[in-house]
Amino acid sequence: MSLDQIELSRRVFLKQAATVTGGLAVAFYLPPGMTATDPKAPAPAAEFEPNAWVRILPDGTVKLVVHKHDSGTGTQTALAACVAEELDVNPMTVQVITPENPFFDTYIHPVWKVFSTGGSTSVSLEYDRLRMAGATARALLMTAAAKQWKVSPDSCTTEEGRVVHVASKRHLAYGELVSVAAHLPAPAKVTLKDPAQFKYIGKLRHKRDAAAKVCGRFKYSIDVVLPQMLVAVIQRAPVIGATVLSVDSNAALQVPGVRKVIRVPGRPDVLGGNVEGVAVLADNYWAAHQGRDQLQVQWSESALSGFDSDQLAGAQAAAIEDKQAQRVTAMAAGDVGAQWATAAKVLEADYRMPYKVQNPLEPICITAQVKDNAITYWGGVQVPSSALEAAQAVCKISQDHVTINELVSGGSFGAREAKYWLFEVAYLAQQAKVPVKLMNSREDEMRALFMHPATLHRAKGALDAQGRLSALQLQAVSPASPEQWEPGYFERPDKMDYSTTEAITAWDFAYRPANLDLVWVKHESNVPSGWYRSVSFIPNVFAVESFMDEMAHAAGQDPLAFRLAHMQDRPRHVAVLKSAAERAGWGQPLPPGTALGIATHQGYTSFIAVVAQVSKKDGVTTVDKLTCVVDCGLAVSPGGVEEQLYGGLMWGLGHALFDRLDIKQGRVVQSNFHDYRVTRMSDMPAVDILVVDGEPGKPGGVGELGSPSVAPAIANALFNLTGVRQRSTPLTLG
Amino acid sequence: MIEFTVNGERRELAETSPSMPLLWVLREHLKLTGTKFGCGMGLCGACTVHLDGVAVRSCQLPVAAVAGHAITTIEGLSPTEQHPLQLAWVAEDVPQCGYCQSGQIMSAAALLNTGAAVTDDSIRNAMSGNLCRCGTYGRINKAIKRAANAPKEA
Q1: Which of B133, B140, B141, B153 should one mutate to test binding to chain A, selecting the residue with the greatest count of A CBs within 10 A?
Q2: Distance set, CA A185 to CA A161, A193, A545 (Å)
Q3: Residue of B nearest to A73 (CA)
Q4: ipTM of the complex
Q5: How far A687 CA sits from the closest chain B CA (Å)?
Q6: One MF term in GO for this entry (chain B) (predicted)?
Q7: How many helices (H) and strands (E) does chain A have?
Q8: pTM as predicted
Q9: I want to staple A437 with a disulfide (CB 3.0 to 4.6 A). Which of A188, A367, A605, B148 is the partner?
Q10: CATH of range A6-215; options 3.40.640.10, 3.30.365.10, 1.10.510.10, 3.30.70.580
C-alpha cells in the first residue's frame, strides 16, 4: 500500500468525535475488529490536522479543505478565506482541496442534514465554524511554539504562516510545529480575530484559479479522461413515464467508434430518478453522438403524452377554486374576507410565469467507474448524498466504498442538484465494467425535464379610504418543489414547503397590512420540477412586487412611498429601497420617453432593491439600466458578491424578457439556444450595483439574491412608460 | 489525410472522418481541451478558435474545411500564458465558473487582431456570440479595454 493509499483509507474511516468543541475536533476510528496495534491499522499521518478543514505538513504546506461544491460562485475562495483569515495564511496562495471523504459527518449541511451545496447558504452558514477552525489551529500552533520557547502562549502571535515571539524576536514556521501541535489537546477557549484586523475577509477582490481558467488549463468534468473509458450519450424517454417498446441498435453499432448500446432502466421509484433511456457508448463523444442519431427506438405513450404547458394556467386557476386542493397558509393576519365588501377599492390580478430551464454552459457530464464493489466518480458533484444514493440504489455499494473526485462545475444554477445523471452513470459504469463518461448535449439539457415549474399567482388587495392597503391575499399555485428531495415533508405539522413559499413567509415578506392571507396552493402537473437559481422567489416576488405596484397606482400613490408605508420594523430593508431609488434618480425629472420601475425583496438574510429604467425611442423599447442596492450583512468576498449580483440581475433580465420553455404533447418544444434565448452581452443594460454594510458580523447569501426583483421592476417600469400592465413573462417590449 | 497547423505545429490526421467537427478533433484527438463544448450549433461560442486569425466556432466546422489553414486555440494564444487579454482577465477577475472564458478570450483576441477601435459598440458586436451564464459580461468589457490599452506582449 502506498502512502497515498494509507492516507486515503485512513480518511475513509475518519469520524467526528462527539466533543464539546462544536464539531471542530476530530478523532479517528478504526474499522470494526481492528486494534490500533494491528499492523494493517491505518498509520497516523505525519501532519497536523486539528479539524476537518486544516492540514499542515512538516514541509510547511498548508492545505485548507473546502467541503462545498464550487460551480463558479467562488465558494472555494470565500470559504478558504474564512479559515485562512483566522489561521493567518494567505487564502490565495495556500492549497485548497476538496475532502477525500465527502461523507464525513462534520461536512453535513447544518440545516438540510444531507451532504449538499445550495440555497445560497455556503458562506452564511459556514462562516462562524470555519473561522473557528482556523482560529483553533492557530491557537494550537502558538501553544506548540510557546512550549518550545518556554514562554506563555499569550506572548506569542502569528504572521503569515509562522508563530512569532516578538519580545525575543524568535519565530517558527507552522511546518516546524507540526509534530508538537499534533499531540496537543484541543484548546479550551479560542478567541476569534477582531474584524477590524481582517486582512482577507471583507477585502477579497480576486478568486483562486483565474489564471488557469484563462489559459484553458483548468479541468472540468468534460475534460476527464481515463484508460479504457467510454463516452456515453443517452436517448431519453421523450415524455416522462414513456417506456421503450423496441430498440434497433444495428445502425448505431455500425458507426465507427461505437462499442455498446445499453438500455438504462428508468427509476420512477426514486424521487428525482432518471427516466428510461437507451445509451450509446463509444470511444469518443462524436461517435457516441452520431450513434445516437442512428438509434431506432419506439417509445410507449405515457400519462403525460397529452400534457400541454399552454393548458396549465387553466388547470392552475381551477385548483384555486378546487375545495380538494391542498392549501397551505404561509402567512395570515386578521380576516381578509371581511375587508372586500367594506373597502374603498378592491383589485384582483393573475400573474403567470412559464417553465424555465437552467442551462449551465457546461452540459451535465460525469465519469464513473465501478470496480471491486466500489464506485469512483470524477466530476462536479454538487450533492454528494445523491452520488451516494445512486451507488446504493443502483450498485448496492455502501458509503465506505464511494469515492468522489470533485471538480469545479461549469455552472449549475440548480441543474447539478438533479440526480438523474448520477443514477444513469452508476448504472452504465456497472454494466460496461469500464469507466464511463456520461455527457449531455445542449438538447439534452433543454429536455432534461427537471425544470423550473410554471406558476400562477392570484392576488387580491383592498384599499381603505385613506389609500392604505387594508387587506392582501395571494394564492400561489405551484407544485411542491422539494418533492424529489424531502419525501415526507408534507407530513410536517405545518405542512410547509419552504422552497415554494420563499418571499411570502413571515421572515421574508416585507409588508404588514392588518389583514393578510398568503397561501400556497399545491398543484402537481406531474411534470417533475427541479431546482433553479432563486427557486420560488422568482414567481413569488414577481407577483407580490407587481401587485404592490398596481395597488400603489390604484391608491394614486408613489410606488416607492406606498411600499415604505407598509413596511414595519425593517430598517435594513427600508434603507436599501431608499438608497436604490435615490441612486436611480427616483422622483427626479426623466428624459422624454423614459420611465422607472422599482421592486424589492428579502432573502437568504440579505436585502435587495432594484430600479429598472426603460425607454422608447424611434418605436423601440429597451431596458437601459438596472440599479441595484444590496445589504448582505458582511460581504466576505466583496468582488464575489458584486459578480453574483451582476449574474443575478442578468438572470432576472432573462426571466423578464426571454426565459420560456414550452411543452406540447408531453414533449419539450425548444432544443437549443436558437429557440430558447438566454441573455447575451448585447442584451445587457447599464448596471449599477452598490453593496452596503448592514450587519458587519454576519454574512447573508447572495448567489440567488439578484434575480427575483428584476422582472417586476421591469414590468413596473413598462407600465409607467406605456400605461399597459403586463402580468405574465416573458414581457413584451413592443 | 487532412493537414493543418494547430498553435504553430503541423498536424496530420489520417483516420479522422472529414466531417468530424474541428472541436472534437481538438479535444479528443489532439487533447487540447481548453476549447469547450456548449451547444454544438455555433450558438454559444464556447468552442471559439482562430482560423487564420479570425474567430470561428469549431463545433460547426468540419475538420476537412481547415485543411491547409492555421488554427489557434486558447492553449496557443500566448507561449507564456501572458497575452494581454489573459493578464487583463485575471486583473479584472473575470472568470466565475470559467467554462466559457476560453471562447470569450479567443473572440476578444480576434477583435484586437482586427486593429479596430475598442469601444463599447465594437466589444458588444464582437462578443455577443459568446454566452456566459454566470454573468461576466461587465467584467469582460472592462478586461478587453484594459488589454487594448496595455503595452504589447514582449
Answers
A1: B133
A2: 21, 21, 55
A3: B96
A4: 0.97
A5: 8
A6: oxidoreductase activity
A7: 16, 29
A8: 0.94
A9: A367
A10: 3.30.365.10
